[in-house]
Amino acid sequence: MGKVTGLRRTVVSLVLVASLVLGLVVAVPASAALTFTALEIFAAEEALTVPEALDQNPQVNSDILPAGLPAGSLALFVIQGVVTAKDSLGQEWQIGSPPVFVYTSADTRVDNAPGIGDLVKVIAVRSLAAGPLVAERITLRQLGPQAAAAADVETAFLFSGLVTRAANDFWTVGGFSFIVNDVEFPAAIDIGLGVGDTVTVEFTAAGVLDPLPPAAPDEVRFEGTVSSIDGDLWQIGGFLVLVNEATRLEGEPDVGSLVEVRGLTQADGTILAERIRAR
Questions:
Q1: Which of 42, 59, 183, 224 is most buried, with most CB under 10 Å away?
Q2: Quick one: how many helices (H) and strands (E) in the chain?
Q3: Could you tell me the sign of the dihedral formed by the alpha carbons of 78, 83, 85, 91, in that order?
Q4: How many CB atoms are closer than 10 A to CB 184?
Q5: What angle do CA 25, 28, 32 make, to 5 degrees?
Q6: pTM higher than 0.85, yes or no?
Q7: Domains and CATH numbers, the chain
Q8: Which pLDDT tens digit goes with each residue over 244-279?
């Protein structure tokens, strides 16, 4: 399923995510019910999927996850605790007491052959719907015998999508906005990524709100420099702007031109240009 990184604990206050950029207010889509804070942003290597567990009858994990997460996200569990049981094939592991059931796949990496009584760290994924926890990696942390206790479990999420906005305070990916400048844990962003790239975001979710109905497109106006033109996709002032046959181009705008844009925001975070005028 691609790259999975270490989870950092983040406490995020409930805020309305909005940024004033060149006179344009860009906010979390009105249908979003949570505040999303990015921990890491990296190039998407492949589609996000939960690997198939080798065990034919895995226990279903039904821990309740927040409502309003981006469709297609995966839940990322980081579990630390003592191995209290595992089957002879190493396909089912029980971590802590009461046990957290974790399952291996053909791609699971098991480091240093931990056994019953050893302290381990497990990185596992699950679909947003209830399902088995499938381990990406199981790592020996301390040899046993260790006293069994409740496992420490932290949860984050993974989401992949197209970057349509890359600002200092937040990025828009797949139509969802992610804070990237958290004071305590600013997001780690791979060098070279930006608007137009498909990325994976590891993020936390906080601040449950009552979901709002989808917003109608907003008219926006802003100025910026055209940094690239790829067919009908233009990058202007850090925004991804869609140009079609109805877009009015005035003054021969081109790469490097300072332009004024008038258009409508779209659900995926792009802007459909009604007019682009060279200044």
A1: 224
A2: 0, 20
A3: positive
A4: 10
A5: 155
A6: no
A7: 74-153 (2.40.50.320), 219-278 (2.40.50.320)
A8: 999 999 998 999 999 999 988 877 678 899 999 998
